[in-house]
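Your task
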Amino acid sequence: MDLSIIIVSWNTQELLRKCLNSIYQNSAGLDLEILVVDNNSSDQTTQMIQANFKKVKLISNHKNLGFAKANNQALKLATGRYVLLLNPDTEILPTSLSQAMAY
C-alpha cells in the first residue's frame, strides 16, 4: 500500500462526496486506501459513503470524538507507507497525489 488517506467528517456530506470523487479521479497508478472517520453526522454522510464509495473504510462514531481522536482512530488502522490527513472540504487536483508521492 502506497498511501493511506484519512478524512474526518462531521456533517460534511456534499463536501465529502466532492473530496472522495476528486481522490478517485486523480489517483491513477497509486495503491491507496481511504479511511473516513465520521463523528456522528446527522446529514446522511455515512449512508452516502456506503452507497457510493464501497472501497472506503468507514469508521462510524456514535458521538463526536473531535478531530484529533478521530484521526488517531484511523491512524491505528492505516496500512500505507505514507499517510495523508485530508480535510473533507479539500479537492485533489490532477497529479497532486502522484507528485507528492514522487517527492
About this structure: The radius of gyration is 13 Å. The longest helix spans residues 13-25.
